[in-house]
């Protein structure tokens, strides 16, 4: 099992960019499918993006498609979320998560598919 630590959050103006990082410990990182979720105050945690273990396949929530890019570097045990054209509604705590199994499109967006979570990093977008 891996352990995950997010970083890179902060305060940014609308239209700006941030890059989040999620560093994983453990030699099996490259075998995990990785995802980013977010949770705004008073709301449920929601799926943002997922990347498979090879880095070839990605999947995005409609709300971030075309603005966010998920990527990974297995040599560095790190997954990234590049966030461009940020909007105030992107404000949330962002979490990375690890899933050792392949999933269907519908199941991969569920929090229950992921066995390991980071502690989260706050992203605040001002208008």
What can you tell me about this protein's structure?
This protein has strands at about 5, 10-15, 20-25, 35-40, 45-50, 60, 70-75, 80-85, 90-100, 115, 120-125. It has about 130 residues and is an all-beta fold.
Give, in order, the helices and strands.
Answer: EEEEEEEEEEE
Counting DSSP E segments of at least 2 residues, the number of strands comes to 11
Q: Which parts are unreliable, with pLDDT below 50 for 5 consecutive residues or more? A: none
Sum up the overall morphology in one term. Answer: globular
Instruction: Kindly report how far apart the N and C termini lie.
Output: 40 Å
How is the main sheet built?
7 strands, mixed
Total DSSP helices: 0
Beta-sheet strand percentage?
Answer: over 45%
Structural class: mainly beta
- Average pLDDT metric: 96
Oligomerization state: single chain
Helix content: under 10%
- Rg computed from alpha carbons, rounded to a whole number of angstroms: 13 Å
């Amino acid at each position: 099992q891996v352990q995950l630590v997010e970083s890179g959050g902060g305060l940014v103006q609308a239209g700006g960019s941030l890059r989040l990082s999620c560093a994983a410990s453990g030699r099996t990182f490259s075998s995990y499918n990785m995802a980013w979720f977010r949770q705004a105050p008073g709301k449920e945690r929601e799926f943002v993006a997922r990347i498979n273990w090879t880095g070839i396949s990605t999947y995005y929530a409609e709300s971030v498609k075309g603005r966010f890019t998920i990527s990974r570097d297995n040599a560095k045990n790190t997954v990234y979320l590049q966030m461009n054209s940020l909007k105030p509604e992107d404000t949330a705590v962002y979490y990375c998560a690890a899933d050792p199994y392949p999933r269907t499109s519908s199941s991969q967006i569920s929090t229950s598919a992921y066995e390991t979570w980071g502690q989260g990093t706050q992203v605040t977008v001002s208008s």
